[in-house]
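4.2 Preliminary Data

To establish feasibility before requesting continued support, the project team ran the inverse folding procedure on a target of 327 residues. The structure was first converted into the token representation described in Section 3, and no sequence information of any kind was made available to the design step. The complete token record follows.
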């Protein structure tokens, strides 16, 4: 089976009715970028920059960060890379960075990601400067994790724009263009999409944190791992609404959580209107095979009906549909 997936490396993820979907990989370390070549993916939809911070004994210097980011862009070549700014705090603590000695009772909902980065702005400035210079003369794509309110996006973008101006003032060639995105992981953000979307170049739905917050269920809790299904009407309706809002606003939207790496879940995501998935490299083969046997228009019709009147078990209904349609 593995050989069969490997043989699909150069085949595009096109459905039987001619939909060209975008399949990208999630990565976090310089070496992960090789997966672009082995899987034939369209790009890196989520580069978790904090991995470099987590494996380091001290705060990575600006120059070292810049080298890593440039290497990643060099290796990716013409394929796009979306860098996510540091998502630390919560369960990803840096031993060399104090959290101001605050004991957090709920670290996942605590001082993490963009919340921490906007306050510890020296960290964010160093990273922005490293990314801006690494992408000199190229397209830079960045996205910000755990955005809960539009002003957080504004501030993060402004911080990058200042580094762009600074680099130019110092005679450095700036990136050709910088594309800015937000991650949708906090449900509250979905209520202010009319305010947020006009500011964005793209949106990326992080289903790991999003489902944790939608169900109020710790994503790492062993007793809860099986309890809530990604294929629940609540999650699928929620994502369907977000995708519709993005489509109406003309803002590209994708999913970068682990949900998209399972074939049936990926099918459901495509069913609610998504055309872009960023997934773990090992899943590219199976998900591509699924897409190549899928009639997207027919699936979307079915999904609309299923979400309008959800069956008792959405997973079973979707699995039966897939089986009956040779997906
Ligand atoms: C997510 O929350 O879905 C996500 C992609 O980010 P991470 O898993 O790194 O929190
Ligand atoms: Mg997340």
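Position-by-position output of the design step:
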């Amino acid at each position: 089976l593995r050989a069969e997936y490997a043989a699909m490396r150069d085949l595009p993820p096109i459905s039987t009715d001619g939909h060209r979907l975008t399949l990208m990989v999630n990565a976090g370390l310089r070496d992960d970028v090789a997966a672009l070549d082995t899987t034939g993916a369209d790009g890196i939809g989520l580069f978790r920059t904090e991995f470099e911070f987590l494996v380091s004994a001290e705060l990575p210097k600006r120059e070292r960060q810049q080298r890593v980011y440039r290497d990643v862009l060099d290796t990716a070549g013409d394929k796009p890379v979306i860098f996510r700014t540091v998502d630390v705090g919560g369960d990803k603590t840096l031993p060399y960075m104090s959290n101001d000695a605050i004991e957090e009772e709920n670290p996942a909902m605590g001082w993490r990601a963009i919340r921490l980065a906007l306050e510890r702005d020296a960290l964010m400035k160093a990273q922005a400067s490293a990314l801006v210079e690494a992408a000199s003369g190229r397209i830079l794509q960045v996205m910000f994790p755990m955005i809960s309110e539009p002003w957080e996006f504004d501030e993060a973008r402004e911080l990058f724009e200042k580094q762009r101006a600074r680099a130019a003032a110092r005679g450095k060639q700036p990136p050709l263009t910088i594309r800015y995105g937000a991650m949708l992981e906090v449900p509250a953000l979905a209520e202010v999409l009319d305010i947020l979307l006009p500011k964005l170049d793209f949106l990326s739905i992080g289903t790991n944190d999003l489902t944790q917050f939608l169900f109020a269920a710790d994503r790492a809790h062993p007793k809860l791992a099986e309890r809530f299904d990604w294929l629940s009407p609540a999650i699928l309706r929620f994502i369907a609404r977000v995708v519709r809002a993005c489509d109406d606003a003309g803002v590209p939207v994708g999913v970068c959580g682990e949900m998209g790496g399972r074939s049936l879940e990926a099918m459901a995501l495509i069913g609610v209107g998504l055309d872009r998935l960023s997934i773990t490299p090992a899943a590219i083969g199976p998900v591509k095979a699924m897409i190549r046997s899928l009639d997207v228009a027919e699936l979307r019709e079915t999904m609309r009906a299923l979400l309008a009147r959800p069956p008792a078990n959405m997973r079973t209904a979707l699995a039966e549909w897939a089986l009956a349609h040779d997906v």
